[in-house]
Amino acid sequence: MSTAKRSLREGRTNWKKTAVVALPAVLAVGAMASVMAEGALAASFAVSGTSFQVSSGKLTSQGLSSYVQVDRDVDGKGHPVALLGIGDATLSDICQAAEVRTPIGTVVFKLMAGGDAGNVTASNLIIDGEDLVGDARFGTAQIGRDASTLDEVPGVKGERGKFGLQAGDIEVAKVRSHAWSATGGNFRLKGMKLDVSLGGKKCF
Prior knowledge:
By secondary structure, the chain is an alpha+beta fold.
């Protein structure tokens, strides 16, 4: 074996192979962003086998509805989540990052938008999260309302007799969440940046 080939195998990344592995993920996100921009992506689908990070400096909205449900992956495994239905949402910035295992190592798939480019906006934003951290202000709040009667966000209702909560105008700073899915209509991602890298930095 030549010295050059041996050196590549031991200490360097073959970026042509990396591109082949990463390309399907890049194309999938491009297609998803296009569909989300048209408001045509349904909130119910089989989730992947791993949650991902979502963060924002500040989130504001005219409404919030939430209840507990179970997301399922393609193998039928259930993942309990708090479905967060957010009306007309405005975010100062947004970051989404997921770790993806590949034959050449763990790749961090990260999408960012907003910041200096301007706010990110979405209507009927739905986040299925397993946690949510931030500094929140609710204009009005109803905790313990029957999930089937929620009416702050159109179309966001749970099962009859189940626990639910909703709020009027909201503001959440320093948003941090681990989510299983996120969908929205009329998504506007100003200054969108997509990065796929080996051992890359996540959102937080």
